[in-house]
Amino acid sequence: MPLLQATAIAPFAGQGGPDVQVNNGALLPELSLRGTTADILEIPESGEISVYVVRKGDTASLIAKMFGVSTNTIYWANDLKPGATLQTDQVLIILPISGVRYEVKKGDTLKGIADKFKGDVSDIAAFNGIAVDGPLAIGDVFIIPDGEVPFTESQNRVVVRGKSKERLYGTNAPEYSGYYIRPIAHGRLSQNLHGYNGVDLAAPTGTPIRAAADGEVIFVNSNGYGGGYGKYLIISHPDNGTQTLYAHNSKNLVNRGDKVSQGQSIALVGSTGRSTGPHVHFEVRGAKNPGANGAWAN
After folding, report:
1. What is the pLDDT at residue 8?
2. DSSP 8-state class, residue 88
3. CATH top-level class for 188-294?
4. Where are the domains of the chain?
5. CATH 1.20.120 corresponds to the domain 10-94
6. What is the pLDDT of residue 2?
7. Distance of CA 132 to CAs 84, 122, 136, 157, Å?
8. pLDDT at 138 over 80
């Protein structure tokens, strides 16, 4: 089976983005960072991050439908205010956000919903573009990032496509032993698997963050909330078709399109975005995280 490889988006700049096809009424880009239209249809089943170049006439809701995510997912991941107008040739990152789709019932409160599905009130509010203490309307549909469905209600709730715990934590993903190195030389494991197959390694602000393996930088966010990631970057590894993500950085040291070598300094540890202290949040998409289960405890 051929490995997935990133496709450069630079050739589409100034051309209105990639060509599109129509599938069941939804526009589908012919090319993305994941390859072909067939790959796009597989996005919910993979952990890979996609990049889309906005075409003339695109709207956030149209792109959201294209990728099978909520409209607010587009805004949230790209530091855009809800309702913001997109610009032709604007580059958007599309995150495979995990969570639970929930329809508000009589008597519901945001805190009650968060507690019920093991979500975070602030995350739910930010993701759905509502105030933390704002009123809820019966029938409103929310996405609860990283939410979990209670076993007793599994038949009455819809888990966002492709975000089962097996895929979320990479338990069924391949293991590439020895392929990735620890992204920081020192520091401690401050949080085991969480989010999308990520671990946290705490270290002082300014500690160098290293590329876990050879690859190409496919996305860099150097300002804003970044969907909670703050300043972060993503590296594609063509050897095995995986991606690694490094988040909450105080500074990024590389640019999109840069080729990097394993061990090269690519960023500095920080506490940007949704973070409680300086650390690097390290994710592996498409394979098991080698730092899981205490492997990088020291």
Report:
1. 29
2. T
3. mainly beta
4. 10-94, 99-159, 188-294
5. no
6. 35
7. 21, 6, 10, 22
8. yes
